[in-house]
Design brief:
Shape: globular
Helix content: 40-55%
Largest sheet: 6 strands, mixed
Distance between the termini: 68 Å
Radius of gyration: 23 Å
Strand order of the largest sheet: 6-7-8-3-9-10
Strand content: 15-25%
Length: about 300
């Protein structure tokens, strides 16, 4: 018969990990790789009886450019969306920068601040100007941080009323203001718009822009948060062929600067040019991976050979 103390300790241990979803494994089977920026362990995703991802384990290191290729319906976009928890895995784990994104104790929104996501269909706010689209997230996050700091100082001041003079707690320094936050965000947004040659579009609405311009602004919006990794979900699939080049050129610039990125793409030539590693997915599995030269010139998997014969 277990003692009361032992039972309480075991109950506390079980409660330490709170899965974000009904997970078959209570805790990760393996410790995460501290060197990896992103890691997935035994990642699976099902919709009813349809298994979209099937027990995928991968590691992505800082500075890597990962191109994810494969036929439609192979699970590429779902895999990407699971990386920043836009999709909750049915099973498995996702680690980002040492944090388990499947743990309820981890604030997903805080972690997403360091993960830029670019969607197929831009997902810009049509009721906001280009400038407001870019500055909205940084201003919102920094205002929230400022409010938290002010509230902390308020509580400290209140508690200090009941303490002796030499026991009073110091206040946290506040070196910014809402006005300064907005000014800095707008300055950064204009700098990013100049980089892509669209500074004159700062005051217009997204609906007045071409597809290529909107996608470049969507990329810039993600960059405004200074992310550690960029996730691209088929960034050129919704564009006219003549607009594809300007978007790919911007992504290539980011790759050359050392940005860690994961790109789901159907642009095989582009994947071959910028990727440091290519993952080929089929049927919810990564069936082959390796350097671009190996994947595109000497593939081993028969399904990959068949796929490349149709797209190259």
């Amino acid at each position: 018969m277990k003692s009361t103390d032992t039972a309480l300790k075991e109950e506390k241990k079980v409660k330490e990990y709170k899965p974000r979803y009904l997970n078959k494994r209570t805790v990760p089977e393996e410790p995460f790789d501290t060197e990896a920026l992103l890691e997935v362990q035994h990642l699976s995703k099902t919709y009813g009886s349809l298994k979209v991802l099937d027990n995928i384990s991968e590691k992505i290191y800082k500075g890597e450019k990962i191109a994810v290729i494969g036929p439609s319906g192979s699970g590429k976009s779902t895999f990407l969306r699971c990386l920043n928890a836009l999709e909750d895995p049915t099973d498995g784990y996702v680690f980002f920068d040492g944090h388990n994104l499947c743990d309820l104790k981890v604030d997903i929104n805080v972690q997403r601040q360091s993960m830029g996501m670019v969607f197929q269909n831009f997902n810009l706010f049509n009721n906001m100007t280009v400038l407001k689209n870019i500055t909205f997230a940084p201003v919102h996050v920094k205002k929230k941080q400022l409010s938290a700091l002010k509230w902390l100082n308020f509580k400290t001041k209140f508690l200090n009323l009941f303490k002796k003079k030499d026991c009073k707690a110091p206040l946290m320094p506040i070196e910014t203001s809402v006005k300064k936050i907005k000014a800095e965000a707008e300055e950064n947004a204009i700098r990013l718009l100049k980089r892509i040659g669209l500074e004159e579009k700062a005051g217009v609405y997204p609906s007045t822009l071409s597809g290529g311009q909107r996608q470049r602004i969507a990329i810039v919006r993600a960059l405004a948060m200074n992310p550690k990794v960029m996730l691209f979900d088929e960034p050129t699939s919704a564009l006219d062929p003549e607009m594809v080049g300007e978007v790919l050129s911007l992504i290539k610039e980011l790759a050359d600067e050392g940005m860690t990125m994961v790109i789901v793409t159907h642009e095989m030539g582009f994947a071959r040019e910028i990727a440091t590693r290519v993952l080929f997915m089929d049927g919810g599995n990564v069936v082959e991976q390796g350097p671009p030269e190996k994947i595109f010139t000497s593939p081993e998997n028969d399904r990959l050979k068949d796929f490349l014969s149709k797209v190259l």
